[in-house]
Amino acid sequence: MRERQVLLRDAAYDFLPLSDHSQKERFTLHNKVENNTYNGKLILRILVKSPLHVGSSQQEFDQEGNVTKRHMRRNQTPVIPGSSLKGAVRSIAEAVSYSCAVSVPNPILKNLLPPGNKSRCSPTNGKLCITCSIFGMIGAGGYKGKVNFGEFTLKSGNTIPKKFPSMESPFKDYPDYNKNKELMPERFDVSKEKDRKKPYKYYGNERLYYCKACEDGDCQNCTKWEYWEHITEAGKTRDLEFRGRKFYSTDREKNPDNAVKKDSVDKTTYEMLEPGSILEGEITFQNLREEEGRLLAYALNIGDHFNMKLGYGKPYGYGKIEITVLDAENMGKRYLTGKNINKDLVKKWAEEYRKDSGIKNTIERFEQMMKKVQ
Questions:
Q1: How would you classify the pairing of strands 147-149 and 278-288?
Q2: Could you tell me which of 44, 224, 232 has the C-alpha nearest to residue 150?
Q3: Dihedral of alpha carbons 27, 32, 37, 40, sign
Q4: Could you give the angle at the alpha carbon of 125 between the alpha carbons of 122 and 127, nearest 5°?
């Protein structure tokens, strides 16, 4: 009997196509303030719309050995770390802009990226894409970025215990042909039973993330075996490519009560912020250009145009949040330079970015994937 496998049609995620090129501009060092930029602070409110768990190292055990994982806390008060929010916002910003290429786990996979966008940014050449300029980057000299995300602290609401269905680990079994030469597809004889078992047993899940082995195949229903038939037939000239950036789409969410059999429910209990909980915090920024402000405001979902998700359990619709701007503080006067900012301007920025003709089709597709379901 063949092992159970995930089909793309059953996955809780969808893909936003990768940008075919990146736009890079000179960046500003942090030891000076640039004219005609924004320097200030946004005070933000997070409304929890579905149970939210941000993990921590804290956990408790009962007498039967069952574990409860605690939500992240600071001085016993639940918080959302700035790094958690920054990661989610950056992922959105990268997806809806002409930013640099995604990271790949294997250098060989760079060949699957769009021809005009195969490399990550490096500050050594004096230019960065808009996302790396806003959020920073590591490696090759590094760059801190222009925006700093503070911690968000619970102001009202409570925590509730939740059990989930067991969730499968992300698929990481990209073939490494250097270490597994016997698994190279051109060595398979698909007519032989012994060869049919090898690729099916070891690899095939990568088809969920990248593929173009056949021109008119049914990707949503393609099995591991069908995938291997296609790439064996195509041989070394097969034209694979990444499907895009992965997001847990709203219309693909699984019902945690019906998704799996009762005996496969994870025994772990998660402490989660209940819907309706409110947290507040702030982000600060220096030398933010107007076009960067527009992207940042949109990626923060100012105006609530799509579902943003944080934390654990996103395939089941957990972790949805809504962000609003409570206030904007202009710090340009402290530096005797810069432009004034207020919360109405931030709202305007988000709307302006949605209407940007250069990336409008991508934004529309993203909002459709992450649409708000009443």
A1: antiparallel
A2: 44
A3: positive
A4: 75
Instruction: Categorise residue 71: left if φ over 0, alpha if ψ from -120 to 50, beta otherwise.
Output: beta
Interstrand relation of 245-247 and 127-129 (parallel, antiparallel or unpaired): unpaired
Q: Enter the DSSP assignment of 75.
A: T
Q: Give the span between the Cα atoms of 199 and 135, in whole angstroms.
A: 40
> Which string of b and e fits 4-36 if b means at least 16 CB within 10 Å?
eeeebeebbbbbbebbeebebeebbeeeebbee
Please state, in angstroms and rounded to a whole number, the distance separating the CA atoms of residues 255 and 258: 5
Entry pTM: 0.88
CA distance 91 to 27: 20
Q: Which residues lie below 8 Å from residue 238, measured CB to CB, with a gap of 6+? A: 212, 213, 230, 231
DSSP string for 233-297: HHGGG----B--EEE--GGGPPPTTTSS-GGGEEEEEEEEEPTT-EEEEEEEEEEE-HHHHHHHH
Query: And the tokens for 364?
Result: 């529309």
Tens digit of each residue's pLDDT (9 = 90 or more) over 183-206: 444 444 545 555 555 544 556 778
Residue of 335, 322, 244 lying closest to 278 (CA atoms): 322
Nearest 5 degrees, angle CA 132-CA 138-CA 144? 60
Q: Which DSSP category does 311 fall into?
A: S
Return the H-helix or E-strand segment holding 366: helix 360-369
Collapsing DSSP to helix, strand or coil, 191 comes out as: coil
- Residue-wise DSSP of 98-114: TPPPPP-SSGGGGGGS-
Render pLDDT for 261-305 as a digit per residue (tens, 0 to 9): 444 556 788 999 999 999 999 999 999 999 999 999 999 999 999
Longest dimension (CA), the chain: 76
- Burial of 141-173, coded b for 16+ CB within 10 Å and e otherwise, reads eebebbbbbbbbbbeebebeebebbebeeeeee
